[in-house]
Amino acid sequence: MLRANAKYKNGINHLPQSEKQNIVISEWRLGLFGLILSLTILTSKILYANHENIRSVLFEKRYITYETIVTDGEIVIQHAWVTVLKYSWFWFPIVCGSLATWFTGLMVYIDSSVPGMQPPSPISPSKYKMQSGHSFHLNYIFAIIIGFLVCGYMFIRGSSLEFFTH
């Protein structure tokens, strides 16, 4: 060890300050050398384990034709469409219910005597809600109920996009 040759008297280090500084610098250099050595070993192991993949990426040229790209793209799109159709029993009723809620809420908002103020919408400032005396009006609750009814009806019916493709 680096401090083995230090002069100790009753467990107290009696080295001059300059020698203590040399020991610290030597330990720092040894630590840096160890770090560089370990990084070199790790890098060489990784390169050796993956040398075939690295060589194929760096040195082999693959020429891809337009027909290959089109064929691969068609396969990807076909797989994506099959996946969309497979799970459309779940997401299609939710999307339709959300659109029904949005459309009904928009009709209620536009049909108001003063849109957003009389009756106040759920996102209106609280001063308009205080004027009317209600925090949430039945008109907007009706819009949400319509969305749930549409979604529930489509779930019960088993609606999905698979019926439209056959």
From TrEMBL:
Q: Identify the keywords attached in UniProt to this record, alphabetized.
A: Membrane, Transmembrane, Transmembrane helix
Can you tell me where the transmembrane regions are? 30-48, 89-110, 136-156
Q: Name one Pfam family in it.
A: ARL6IP6
Q: Which PANTHER family match?
A: ADP-RIBOSYLATION FACTOR-LIKE PROTEIN 6-INTERACTING PROTEIN 6
What's the name of the protein?
Uncharacterized protein
